[in-house]
Each structure stands twice: as structure tokens, then as C-alpha cells.
Automatic annotation (TrEMBL):
Keywords: Signal. Residues 1-21 form the signal peptide. This is FxDxF family PEP-CTERM protein. It holds the Pfam family PEP-CTERM. The keyword Signal applies. Residues 135-158 form the Ice-binding protein C-terminal domain. It comes from the Bacteria.
């Protein structure tokens, strides 16, 4: 008799305290991406948001979430294509309804944002942005310095001619 009651209690606790785990693609938008997720009831979430960059780029990502009563981010991290940790984001859990996360890194390739947290309330969700900005190649800096040097030589030559 105890075994069926134990199975029933385990089944009810699973239904009442559900967990969401998802992997999805961020939506391209301007010079970056947008992402969002929503759920209902008391739940925990463990999501992977996929995106990529072309060339060496600065990655800035931010996220915010809210629910009817309580919303908490546990972690907000940047992972490589094999889901290895690259950068740890900052997480700020403020008032009982809103939480924020932020991270910055310079990378290129395919990535995942790993978002982990929990919520209590009838409905909850989070949304965020990923902004990518090209980082100049070292050769670009060399060309710029050579150009400035050439301008300096020409300006100095003109000053000598007028004297």
C-alpha cells in the first residue's frame, strides 16, 4: 500500500513544481539578437539560447524577467558551441518581481547563452538582447597609425616650407 501512495506523491510533486528546459535560437535584430521565454505556475527553467557571430566581435548581453510574485535568475552565462563556459554573467535579483543579468565578452563563432532560474506566480517570463559589435583587426590599427604618421610628415614639411 505504501508504494502506490509514494508513486502518487512523486507524480503530484512533479506536476505541481514543473521544470522547463529548452534550447532555441535567438532572433536576429539590428546589430544583434533578441530572445524571450514565458511560462506559467511555479517553475524552474534551464534554457540555452543559440546565436553566432561573424569575425571577432564584442558580445553584450542583457536579460530581465518578471512574474506575478517572485522571479530569480540563478545564472546567466556565455557558453561555446560545445556548451563549455566562456564568460560568467552578472545576476542581480532585486525586488521580488524583477531580476537582471548582464555579460560582456569578445569572441567569434557559435555560442549559447545559458539562462537558469526559477519563478513563483501565475505567469512569468524573461526577455533579453544580444548586441554584437565588430572588433577592428590589428592590421586596421597599423594602417590607421601609418596614415596619421604620413599626415604628420606632410604637415611638418609644409611648416618648413613656410618658414
Amino acid at each position: 500500500m505504501k508504494k502506490p501512495l509514494l508513486m502518487l506523491a512523486l507524480g503530484l510533486s512533479t506536476i505541481l513544481n514543473s521544470a522547463y528546459a529548452a534550447t532555441y535560437d535567438a532572433t536576429p535584430s539590428g546589430d544583434g539578437y533578441q530572445f524571450s521565454s514565458s511560462f506559467s505556475g511555479d517553475t524552474s527553467f534551464d534554457d540555452y539560447i543559440r546565436f553566432s557571430t561573424e569575425g571577432q566581435q564584442t558580445i553584450l548581453a542583457s536579460i530581465s524577467g518578471s512574474s506575478g510574485t517572485n522571479f530569480t535568475f540563478t545564472s546567466f552565462n556565455l557558453l561555446d558551441a560545445d556548451k563549455n563556459l566562456i564568460a560568467t554573467g552578472s545576476v542581480l535579483n532585486g525586488s521580488p518581481k524583477i531580476a537582471f543579468g548582464f555579460l560582456e565578452s569578445v569572441q567569434y563563432g557559435d555560442f549559447f547563452l545559458h539562462v537558469v532560474g526559477s519563478t513563483v506566480g501565475a505567469s512569468a517570463g524573461y526577455n533579453g538582447t544580444i548586441t554584437t559589435t565588430l572588433v577592428p583587426e590589428p592590421g586596421s590599427y597599423a594602417l590607421m597609425l601609418a596614415g596619421l604618421g604620413l599626415i604628420g610628415v606632410i604637415a611638418r614639411k609644409k611648416v618648413r616650407e613656410t618658414v
